Amino acid sequence: MNFIYPIIRSLVLFLFITFTVVVKTNAQIFDKIQTEAELQATGTTGDVVPFWMRSNQYGSVPLEGVSGSLILRAYKPYSQYLQTDSNSNRKKLVDWGMGFEGRGNAGNKSNLTLIEAYAKLRVGVFQLKAGRSKDVMGLNGDTSLSSGNFTMSGNALGIPKLEISIPNYYTIPVFQGLFSIKGNFAHGLLGKIKGSTESSYLHQKSLYMRIGKPDWKLKLYGGFNHQTFWGNEKDLYGADFDLSKFETLYYVFLGKTYKGKGVGRSKIGNQIGSLDLGAEYNFEKFKIMIYRQNFYDVGALAKLANIADGLNGVSIENNDKNTKISGFKWKKALFEFFYSKDQAGYPWSKKTKSGDEDYYNNAFYRNGWSYFGPGIGNPLITPASDAREGQASKKADYFINNRVVAVHLGFEGEIDTWTFATKITHSWNYGTFGTSIYGNTTGNNSSPRSNNIFIPVQQFSVYLEGLKALKNNYRIGFATALDQGKLLNNSFGASLRLIKGF
Question: What is the pTM of this model?
Answer without folding.
Answer: 0.90
